[in-house]
Design brief:
heterodimer, A: 328 residues, alpha+beta, Rossmann fold, OB fold (Dihydrolipoamide Acetyltransferase, E2P), 2 domains, 9 helices, 18 strands, 30% strand, B: 292 residues, mainly alpha, MetI-like fold, two-stranded antiparallel ribbon
């Protein structure tokens, strides 16, 4: 049984360009799925299509083997954490969390008990529960939004860039806490993000999108180690992506990805060049080398300051440093 | 060197002078005038003075308080104010909500439609309304043709006419104020509410409505103040037996030529407005800001 199934989904703007272009995939129950892509890639539109806030032009959306394409959001039973959290400013944190149960007609005692349970879960103190959103910090608001999205027992949790408005250290902590909450709840989750570290760290599987199309789908390791597409490789942060032309100059064929930690620098190697920049990162040095044939490469070395900026060096490209990108 | 605050004062000086000269001073003058003795006793005080300068008396207020006529006029004025304000809110809120929901590209056109009645001359609007509401106007003609009524309804020269006319004149303000309030509301909150299982109606009752209460209260107050000052509608559409304070002030000033009494009624109107606005300030709903 697929928790979510998207079948040839397309959705366009009034201008005629497609925000989502023929996307299909399936999610297994309990899976944590990351939609990764640059802004404008259509990933937020995907969430709005799945949540029912937007109707697709073609294709269908299935949740728990039920076709919900024409079903309004209030009958899809999906919990959503919006990028700006969209907390109700006139309600306390507690009432925000209880809202989903209140509209279902659950009694006050019952829904508040459940809301307290959820807020216990996300770790909001009792004091903070009676404050209104404006009196809470960004991180506290994020927790309330997560609790609210889970409290009414949805069959799917959707998160739209939930950490984008938080500072880095808080982001990393909340990220882990949220993954833990999700794992305990065992709920199928879709996270939309433009942050590749976030997607790689959280996802059971990730899907990379660009210009409305699904470029690659797989486990974080698969997508990182074997990108099938130049755009995916570049978006995942790979620096040494050589076009067919550039790789030809280095004696290889087709588009390739070179792993900087597997390239070697010698006094005598295959490809002569000059060190342009050097950055010390702690665990290693990153050398930006311009080869004489015009190709720019990043090379990682763990050696001591053996080379200086401006040094002439030779780069060896062993076979294990090369991954071919099929550009499918 | 001048501080920013001092500079701000400087810039506002012309409007402060204007306010003092054209609003505050006339009001003081109005109060002073109401404390004078009337000059002319006859209805045609040609040649006589309209008040006796330099005299001090509370005669005007004593007359007003003891006089049935004044209380009837004041009562009708307040009744009209509340009826018109209520109608404006009841008609204006759904309209504003509809306009808020319109696609962005249609909103400028919709805005023009709302303010068109305010761009044309007040008299043209009211005389147009007199034709429509007249005994042989389209409304009565249509109702008679349909057999709903036999005799034409008294749609003008009656309280009905005044209410229709004044509502028409005030409604654009009500709509604009509520609309502006709704536009400040984050639409994402409605999406969030729907996503949590609330129907369109539940979302309206539990999210949109409470968050638009401040705008609703402001719109009600403005409509009320506007309607309490009704002059043209009762003057042209109303019956001579049911007039508002504004109409009576004009009568006292220019027909009865009793300026102190006209001024006294003006003061009474100001006090009524202040009382009502003060009452509203007490029940003003809370404004809830969204984070950030």
């Amino acid at each position: 049984m697929a928790a979510v199934r998207l079948h040839h989904l397309s959705c366009g703007f009034a201008s005629g360009t497609l925000a989502v272009d023929d996307v299909s995939f399936e999610l297994a129950a309990g899976e944590f799925f990351c939609l990764l892509g640059p802004s404008g890639s259509g990933k937020s539109t995907m969430l709005r299509l799945i949540g029912g806030y937007l109707e697709p032009q073609t294709g269908s959306v299935w949740i728990n083997d039920r076709d919900v394409t024409k079903v309004p959001p209030e009958r899809r039973n999906t919990g959503m954490v919006f990028q700006n959290y969209a907390l109700f400013p006139h309600l306390s944190a507690l009432d925000n969390v209880a809202f989903g149960l209140r509209v279902k007609g659950v009694s006050k005692v019952e829904r508040e008990a459940k809301a307290h349970e959820m807020l216990d879960w996300v770790g909001l103190t009792h004091n903070e529960r009676h404050r209104r959103p404006v009196q809470l910090s960004g991180g506290q608001q994020q927790r309330v939004a997560l609790a609210r999205a889970l409290a009414f027992g949805p069959s799917l949790l959707m998160l739209d860039e939930p950490f984008a408005n938080l500072d880095r250290s808080l982001r990393e902590r909340l990220r882990e806490e949220m993954r833990e909450v999700q794992r305990r709840a065992g709920i199928t989750t879709i996270l939309v993000t433009h942050d590749r570290d976030e997607a790689l760290a959280l996802g059971d599987r990730i899907a990379v999108m660009d210009q409305g199309r699904l470029l690659q789908l797989g486990t974080p390791e698969e997508v990182y180690r074997q990108p099938t597409n130049t755009t995916v490789a570049i978006f995942l942060g790979h620096r040494n992506v050589l076009t067919a032309e550039a790789s030809g100059k280095c004696g290889m064929e087709g588009t390739v990805l070179l792993w900087p930690e597997r390239l070697r620098i010698h006094k005598a190697g295959q490809h002569a060049g000059i060190v342009r920049r050097m950055v010390f990162t702690g665990s290693h040095r990153v050398l930006a080398v311009s080869l004489d044939n015009g190709v720019e490469l990043d090379v990682h070395t763990t050696h001591d300051a053996e080379h200086q900026v401006g040094d002439r060096v030779k780069v060896e490209i062993p076979a294990e440093a090369v991954t071919r990108i099929p550009d499918a | 060197m001048k501080t920013a605050r001092q500079r701000a004062w400087l810039w506002s000086a012309p409007s402060v002078v204007l306010l003092l000269g054209l609003l505050v001073w006339p009001m003081i003058y109005l109060v002073r005038l109401s404390l004078c003795e009337g000059g002319s006793q006859s209805g045609f005080g040609i040649g006589g003075s309209f008040y006796k300068p330099g005299t001090w008396t509370l005669k005007v207020y004593a007359t007003l308080l003891s006089e049935r006529y004044f209380w009837e006029v004041l009562g009708f004025t307040v009744w009209l104010g509340f009826v018109v304000a209520a109608l404006c809110v009841v008609l204006g809120y759904p309209t504003a909500h509809f306009l808020w929901q319109l696609p962005k590209r249609w909103k400028p056109a919709a805005l023009v439609f709302v303010i068109i009645p305010k761009l044309s001359s007040l008299l043209v609007t009211i005389y147009g309304l007199k034709i429509i509401l007249g005994d042989f106007g389209p409304v009565n003609a249509a109702l008679q043709a349909l057999g709903v009524i036999k005799e034409p309804l008294a749609l003008q020269h009656s309280a009905t006419g005044v209410v229709i006319g004044k509502t028409l004149l005030v409604l654009p303000y009500t709509i604009l104020l509520i609309w502006a309030g709704l536009e400040r509301l984050d639409r994402g909150l409605i999406s969030a509410s729907r996503g949590l299982g609330a129907t369109t109606w539940q979302s309206f009752v539990w999210v949109t409505l409470p968050l638009s209460l401040p705008a609703l209260a402001a719109a009600t107050l403005v409509s009320l103040i506007w309607a309490l000052g009704a002059f043209i509608s009762p003057y042209l559409l109303g019956s001579p037996d049911q007039i508002t304070l504004a109409v009576d002030v004009q009568r006292q000033m220019f027909e009865n030529l009793h300026w102190p009494r006209g001024a006294g009624e003006g003061v009474a109107m100001l006090l009524t407005l202040t009382l009502i606005a003060g009452g509203f300030a007490l029940i003003r709903p809370r404004e809830y800001a969204s984070p950030r």
